[in-house]
Amino acid sequence: MIYFDNSATTKTSDKVAQQILSDLTSNELFGNPGSLHKLGITSGNAYDEATKAIASKLGCKKEDIIYTSCGTEGANTAIEGYLSRNARAGKTIISTKTEHKATLETLEKMLKLGYNVVYLPVGMDGKPDLSVLESELAKGDTAILCFTHVNNETGAILPIEEIVKIKNKVSPKTVIYLDCVQSLGKLDINLMKLGVDMASFSGHKIHGVKGVGVLYIKTGIRIDPFIRGGGQQGGLRSGTQSLMLADSFRYALEEAVDARANAYEEVSEINAYLRRELLSRGATINSPDDALPFVLNVAFKGFQSETMLHALESFEVYVSTVSACSSKTKKPSYVLLEMGVDRKIAANSVRLSFSRYNTMDEAMEFIKIVDKVYDMYLIG
């Protein structure tokens, strides 16, 4: 099996799985972290240690972290929660139409609630037009900027440093929400240095488990809670805390950060090899030249994307057409169309996405299988 669909989800690492089993079978760590008895205190202390370790790896304070169920919840909570709490901050939101659906659907809701949503044009490099950003910020009514650090379909990397500089110069009170789901464990992230106010992360994208994410909310930023109840997590997300989920994120993050440099180098070689081989076979590369190497969006000449997906699947090779969250629509990628990619090319495009566990041998075998697919379906 060759699994090139790691942007959709990743296989849980052995270390994370072992830690989960340890937490679930422990006779000392099953207590409610909010309870005042010995079992609760023991569990609560372990929960706090997990949060401290995560904050250390992300370059922020422990108090700035709340656990969520996923990146989608993080986006919803950050955007809606901030605008609800800060009604006087402004009525304009600035973003792009290449964001993840978790952001785009939230912005559509805000539009219906009377907010003005400005979508910056995006070029073939996947980057927003920063001159338009500056002119829009200069109007003085922008409450929040909503962007994605790494695009999940193309790997395009947001010029966040430039965006922060423009924002600080033109509209310093405007806050920034950043979707870091695809950049976590792949790019060096230090939240205190990055200059954003809120950021979301997801465990299952870094060889953790589905069902846990992290939302960073910078000290001093106030939001209304998305989930109300007993006041856990500083009142920002009520509900019984899960040590098992916190630990799963902690150990997945620690492994990802520790392996990041080597993984980046190895995956870069895989990406470069596949680009060369696929281009020589008449494919079109949609990912920008400077995209994150963990994502490679490619259009196969003569094949609709879904046809190629299933053809590869017959050889136990797994890829995606568009984002897994949008794959059942069977429409060309809205991300590619927004970037200016021709509709016919977009309809023929699939996404290959890699992790630190992928190898060059898999990449070479993938090319051999692509050749077999062409021989079988177009020649045979």
Unreliable spans:
none
State the helicity in percent bands.
40-55%
- Write down the overall geometry: globular
How would you sum up the major sheet?
7 strands, mixed
Order of helices and strands: EHHEHEHEHEHEHEEHEEHEHHEH
Report the span from N to C terminus: 24 Å
Structural class: alpha/beta
What is the total tally of β strands?
12
Topology (elements, then pairings):
Blueprint: E1 2-3, H1 14-25, H2 38-58, E2 65-68, H3 71-85, E3 92-96, H4 101-112, E4 116-120, H5 130-137, E5 142-148, H6 160-170, E6 175-179, H7 191-194, E7 198-202, E8 213-217, H8 243-279, E9 284-285, E10 295-299, H9 305-313, E11 317-318, H10 334-339, H11 343-347, E12 349-353, H12 360-379
Parallel strand pairs: 1-11, 3-4, 3-5, 5-6, 6-7
Antiparallel strand pairs: 2-8, 7-8, 9-10, 10-12
What does this entry look like structurally?
- With 380 residues, this protein is an alpha/beta fold.
- Helix content is 42%, strand content 14%.
- It contains 12 helices and 12 strands.
- The chain has helices at residues 14-25, 38-58, 71-85, 101-112, 130-137, 160-170, 191-194, 243-279, 305-313, 334-339, 343-347, 360-379; strands spanning 2-3, 65-68, 92-96, 116-120, 142-148, 175-179, 198-202, 213-217, 284-285, 295-299, 317-318, 349-353.
- The chain has a 7-stranded mixed beta sheet with strand order 2-8-7-6-5-3-4, sandwiched between helices.
- It is globular, with a radius of gyration of 21 Å.
- The protein starts with a strand and ends with a helix.
